[in-house]
Each structure stands twice: as C-alpha cells, then as structure tokens.
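anyone seen this seq b4? input:
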Amino acid sequence: MIVLLIILLAYIQIGLLVAAFLFGQDYHAGNPITWQDAVFGTLLLIALWPLLAWMHFSSAVKD
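predicted toks r here
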C-alpha cells in the first residue's frame, strides 16, 4: 500500500513537471499553474505511460 502511495505521489510530481512544461508560457506571463493543470499533466502522463513502457521494452528486446 505504501509503495502504491509513493508511485501515486511520483505521478503527481511528474504531472506537475509536465504541466509546468506545457503551461510554462502562461506561468511566466503571471498566471500560476493551477491544480487543474497539474491534474491534466498527471492524467496525460498516466495515459502515455503504456506507450512509453512499450517503446522502452520493445527497444530493449531488439538489443
């Protein structure tokens, strides 16, 4: 259970980084990143995770 919580917190943290990257222009214009941006970044990361894992493991199998 603790491991799942740590993984979830890591996803949220990386989601914040994704949100900062995607909406960084707004942030520099004086609009801070909101929790909706962080949720969107986290959901985007979760949605892309299977694709990223498949790309990683398919290239590892070829080597």
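The mean pLDDT is 73. The longest helix spans residues 35-62. kinda curious what u guys think
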